[in-house]
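**Backbone description:**
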Amino acid sequence: METRYNLKSPAVKRLMKEAAELKDPTDHYHAQPLEDNLFEWHFTVRGPPDSDFDGGIYHGRIVLPPEYPMKPPSIILLTANGRFEVGKKICLSISGHHPETWQPSWSIRTALLAIIGFMPTKGEGAIGSLDYTPEERKALAKKSLDFCCEGCGSAMKIALLPLSSGSASSQADKEAKELARQISFKAEVNSTRKSDTDSPNVSELNHSATSPEPQQESAAMAFPDPTTNATSEVPNSSATSNQENIQPASNNTSISPRQRRAQQRRVPSSTEFHQVQQPRVDTSHTGSAVLIVLLTLALAALIFRRIYLANEYVFEL
């Protein structure tokens, strides 16, 4: 098998190391890769004691991605057990369904202990989970001893070492329970943090809905009346109108910041132009200009008349 894979690959190095560590079966678990595929393993686990699966021995597959151990494996049970569906990728915090909770420091041995620890837990509608009655699970536990895998040829009666009452067995049971508790807790914490990050703070939404932004205030005062006092009612009414038009944009949390800024910098509508009093034209300057024009025209007419009379007098002489 070593000649078929790139020995410099991190995944190949890691899997060969784990295969050497798990070569000898224990009384609780055993796993080895297929002879022709290093990235597909077959495993066998013993049902946890003092549970509905006590006395059962269960077989399954572990399919590992090429990016292992940076990405989690997929776990598939092949023995009927009443907790996980047969032939379907099960949803666990340590499987491919939850890459956000996977840690590269975990291994195939970690996955085996997690399966043992998760078997007595409730399915709660997770993918690949079953909620059989205790009687059905106990019946399947007894029946599991007759299972023989067609893919790897493992027989459940001889797949594991006989169960002993030594400290190693007790330690494996404790480790499986503790690992399942830690992984389950980590998954709950991560999902809580994700929901807190995705959902906006209620107080922030209320604050953005009730307090106008500086850009909104400047838009309300975009057209001041120079002939009125700063406390006149015209700017106040226009500010109120602009706030009413702009506030729905702040309440809408689905738009992007760029769209929100574009709405705040938009040109006021025609109704807003009519609501704001336009500056009045200074009539005094206009009157002066008209008077100058009239005087210029009168002077030009007088000069023209004198020139005309002078020419007429010369003509008579």
About this structure: The CA atoms of residues 1 and 36 lie 7 Å apart. The two ends are 136 Å apart (CA to CA).
